[in-house]
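Entry 14. Ran structure prediction on the chain below.
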Amino acid sequence: MNVINSLFIYLLFPGFLFSFILSIFVSFLDRKITARLQYRQGPPLLQPLYDFFKLLLKEVTVPKNANLLFFLSPFLSFASVVLASSILWTAIIFKKGFIGDITVFVYLLLIPSVMLILGGASSGNVIVSLGVSREIKMLLSYELPLITATLVPILNSGSLKLIEIMQKNTLSLPSILSFFVLFICLYAKSGIVPFDAPEAETEIAGGILMEFSGILLGLIKLTKQVFMSLFPAFLVGLYFFDGGVVSFVIKYLMILFFIIIFKNINPRLKIIQVMKFFWFIIFPLSLLSVILLFIL
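Output, structure tokens:
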């Protein structure tokens, strides 16, 4: 019976199938609101689904010097983010989890970036290596403040279990600072404007994604979409969770709407600007939030 329950959770709800459907809907909202802001009509509801299946049907072009990691990295990236989605939504919907699940969740969110770096580096393309270099610098910039900011709700609740952290969230100055830092770090991790330097189509022709095609590119894009759907849910769960379905949906959509607006009003940052921003502004703020938690 436990095996059947596990298969249901990880394959259907709230695992793969739920994550896939939600990511398609979030991608639609992103593209539709972006289009409206630019005075365009925007795509139909199922356009992200059509785009994904179109990539599945396309041929996979293999670089001459590619190795096994080039093929495995998109699959491992997608598997890790779906597993992270299952852990988070299980805590939110079923009020269940295990001790240390927030640690596993944060670790799983690290894997897609690492796999993208390894997969891009294994392609052997010089332009891709530039994108890989930028992705590594991005990772070194936002990962430490992300972990530090996550310590605030953990220490505030005295638990490493997601549902217990959610149920004990309190609004305070350290929490507000932690929320701001975590928002910026997760936003950067999503790889959208202004933190899209590793791809930067107008500068390095797609950068780290340049050699990926067909199902491999489709899985990478789907991984990003699933992460985009997790982003607001994680923030609402950690800082504004009250157990109500309607209030959760409203808060989720508000954060998602803000993400989309923020994406459309900012230009791309240079990688040196990103590193300075995180190391000299965001990281000190994350440390300050932890220090204030002990002082106040």
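Residues 2-295 form one domain. Will compare against last week's run tomorrow.
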